[in-house]
Amino acid sequence: MSLSYGNYIGEFKEVNGEIINHGKGEFIFDSKNKYEGNWKDGKKDGMGVFTYATGEKYIGNFKDDKFDGMGIFLWGKGAKYIGEWKDDKKHGKGIQYFKYDKEENEEEEDEEDEEDKENKEDKDMNKFEGFYENDMKENFGILNYEKGKYVGQWKDNKRNGIGIFYAYTGDRYEGEFKNDKIEGIGTFYIRNNNRYEGEFKNEQMEGYGIFYYGNGNVYEGEWKESDRNGIGTLYYTNGNVYKGHWKNDVREGDGILFLKNGKTIEGIWAGDELFMSI
User: Fold this and answer.
1) CA distance 178 to 193
2) CA atoms of 199 and 211, how far apart (whole Å)
3) pLDDT-based confidence at 104, cuts 50/70/90?
4) Does the pLDDT value for residue 103 go beyond 50?
5) At 6, is the pLDDT very low, low, confident or very high (cuts 50, 70, 90)?
6) From the CB of residue 26, how many other CB atoms can be counted at a distance below 10 Å?
7) N or C: which end of the chain has fewer CB within 10 A?
8) What single string gives the DSSP state of each residue in the chain?
9) pLDDT tens, residue by residue, 141-198
10) What is the value of pTM for the model shown?
11) What's 175-234 look like in SS3?
């Protein structure tokens, strides 16, 4: 049956003298998109397969001409979404695989056989497993990607709220995220037993915080762009204590060094060294 916007082959029914698609059938659109599956009162409804002329494909449930219910969307080269849909959008619980941002070695991939490609698919893909609302990641989800793994809250398709980031380097952050970045209050566990507890801004240690060094030293004070900047106190493992100004991660300006023997050195510091005693 030929229609004004494509060709239909399948079951139909007549309503008030009009022939409408109803039951199982195949429709090839003038755009070269194709739908195979169930129809109800002229609309895609029930299980079906929609194949785009560009090669993308949706396999799943339809309602009132839209993706609705459980379904799989395939973009090609392993990229896919498996989960719930509503009104043509990802909505509900689902899993999405998508390519790393970094460029892939296409020539190397071409030399692999199909079985090898299938076995390594998950390894070569980012993976998000969680909840969607209106096509965006929302509420809670787990993201595995080239930098590491994030487990936590989402809002407006971005990491927002409380979460944990596990870096592939072995570092770990636990705390607040804002607009997809580490921002707010949190704890950063760094290799070699280093640990920072405090404020973050734009993925940097910034504001007030305490840094516990692997060698036993402890710094408590102000930070800017992940360097000690402002007023702070450094407690040395040998019992000495420095209280004063810092700039670009070194002692700079007025400060007092309290020695473990009870003596004090008060002066002006430059480049982490005592410049002048007061």
Assistant:
1) 26
2) 11
3) very low
4) no
5) confident
6) 16
7) C
8) -EETTEEEEEEEEEETTEEEEEEEEEEEETTS-EEEEEEETTEEEEEEEEE-TTS-EEEEEEETTEEEEEEEEEEETTEEEEEEEETTEEEEEEEEEEE-SSPP-HHHHHHS-HHHHHHTTTTTEEEEEEEEETTEEEEEEEEEETTEEEEEEEETTEEEEEEEEEETTS-EEEEEEETTEEEEEEEEEETTTEEEEEEEETTEEEEEEEEE-TTS-EEEEEEETTEEEEEEEEE-TTS-EEEEEEETTEEEEEEEEE-TTS-EEEEEEETTEEEEE-
9) 999 999 999 999 999 999 999 999 999 999 999 999 999 999 999 999 999 999 999 9
10) 0.86
11) EEEECCEEEEEEEEEECCCEEEEEEEECCEEEEEEEEECCCCCEEEEEEECCEEEEEEEE
| Structure-block tokens of residue 118 | 């299938």
For the chain, the residue count is: 278
**What CA–CA distance (Å, rounded) separates 154 from 132?**
9
Question: What would the two tokens of residue 227 be?
Answer: 């360097």
Assign residue 101 a region (left: φ > 0; alpha: ψ between -120 and 50; beta: otherwise): alpha
Return the amino acid letter for 215.
N
- Is residue 109's pLDDT more than 60? no
Distance CA 139, CA 67 (A): 22
